[in-house]
Every structure is written in structure tokens, then in C-alpha cells.
Specification:
- This protein is mostly helical.
- It has helices at residues 7-35, 38-45, 49-55, 59-71, 76-79, 86-101, 104-116, 121-149, 157-172, 186-204, 206-219.
- The model is unreliable at 212-218 (pLDDT under 50).
């Protein structure tokens, strides 16, 4: 029978894993994906090569872990808010999205993928499938739920999710890719979320769509 690791050993393993991922992200950005060897990652993280290979047998596995953790939600309650109140739900999701995009490592991760994409297209696929798409799907599923409850009226929840996240990322994130000093304050980012929520509510909120339909019918 395999003995379960003690809380101490689990904590040490988690600390080493975090150190490896931090070192790998820094080295991938500085030297490129191809230029950063696993041996150098182990040295920078202060762990043995055996420890690194035990957790990440390949460079691809290490990159997958970086992507997965970068997009991981710290608070699932914000990512999956209770349905039934479109404004409150979208506000919680929007704030969570800002928190993700504003992480120091997120812009670095995108830069790694973009820089290495011509030589390693699998990095783009990994980032899309393990990070961006699961997050996007969680937002789409939330909108599906609101649609089913009747609090929103959407013919295309995939398009609506794209619109909502795009309104936020176009201000909070994408300028960071070109402007090194782009760092809007918390109040500005919160304002962008609030405005995006109001736009979604005006376009897709059940009461607003019903009023528009009634107005069109009256004019007809």
C-alpha cells in the first residue's frame, strides 16, 4: 500500500512546483521557449533535475501547467456566480476577468506564445485549449443559464460572451502588449466593467428586449 504524503511533504512539493513554474515563465520570456532548457529551469528554481522531471517530464508539460495555472480561478464563486441577476452575475465575472488579465504573468505568457508561434504552433494551441477556451466556455455557460431562466434573451451566447469579454480586454489587457507602461488604475478598470455590464444589460436584458419588441410592435 502506498503511503499518503504528509501535509509537510505536500506543502514542500507545492512550493517546489510554484518555484519551477515561476522560473520557467521567466526563462521562457528571457530566452524563448526553445532557448530555455529544463536543466536551466531546475537550476533557476533551486530544485534538482530529478524533482523537476518527476513533476514535468517534458517542456511541453511544463508549459501546459503554466497556462493552466495562469488562467485558474482563485475564487470559483466569482467565476460561477448564482444565476438570476444578470447585472450582478456579469459584474462578478467582469471583475474576475480584470483580475486575471491584470496578473503580472499574463502579459508575459501571451508574449511567449506570440513570439514562439511560428516555430512552435503547439504553444498557441495549448494556450487556447487549456487557458482561454475553458474560461470563455465558463462565461458562455453562465449566459446560457441566464437565457434559460429568462433573465436574458440571447440568440447566440457565444457571440454575447465574445462581446462582453472583448469590451473589457480591449482596455484592460491588449494595450499592455504594446505599451510597457500601460497600467490603468483600479477605478478605471472597474468603470470599464460597469460600462460593459450596462451595455450587455441594455442589449440582452429580458426587460429591455421586451420593451424594444413592444415598441417595434406599436410602431408597426
Amino acid at each position: 500500500m502506498t503511503k499518503e504524503p504528509s501535509p509537510y511533504h505536500r506543502r514542500v512539493a507545492e512550493q517546489k512546483r510554484a518555484a519551477i513554474i515561476e522560473a520557467a515563465t521567466r526563462l521562457f520570456l528571457d530566452a524563448g521557449y526553445a532557448g530555455a532548457s529544463l536543466a536551466k529551469v531546475a537550476e533557476t528554481a533551486g530544485v534538482s533535475k530529478a524533482t523537476l522531471f518527476k513533476q514535468f517530464p517534458t517542456k511541453a508539460a511544463l508549459f501546459d501547467a503554466i497556462v493552466t495555472e495562469s488562467w485558474a480561478a482563485e475564487d470559483d464563486g466569482e467565476l460561477h456566480p448564482p444565476a438570476g441577476d444578470l447585472r450582478a452575475g456579469l459584474t462578478a465575472i467582469g471583475r474576475r476577468y480584470v483580475s486575471l488579465l491584470a496578473r503580472p504573468g499574463m502579459a508575459a505568457l501571451f508574449r511567449i506564445v506570440i513570439a514562439e508561434l511560428p516555430r512552435f504552433p503547439e504553444l498557441g494551441e495549448s494556450h487556447f485549449e487549456r487557458g482561454k477556451m475553458p474560461y470563455f466556455d465558463s462565461v458562455r455557460r453562465y449566459l446560457d443559464t441566464e437565457n434559460a431562466l429568462g433573465t436574458a434573451k440571447l440568440d447566440d451566447t457565444e457571440l454575447a460572451a465574445t462581446q462582453f469579454l472583448g469590451m473589457i480586454s480591449n482596455y484592460v489587457f491588449w494595450p499592455r502588449m504594446l505599451l510597457i507602461d500601460w497600467s490603468p488604475d483600479d477605478a478605471s478598470m472597474a468603470h470599464v466593467v460597469d460600462e460593459a455590464v450596462l451595455m450587455m444589460e441594455a442589449r440582452y436584458g429580458a426587460a429591455n428586449t421586451a420593451n424594444r419588441s413592444s415598441h417595434v410592435a406599436h410602431e408597426g
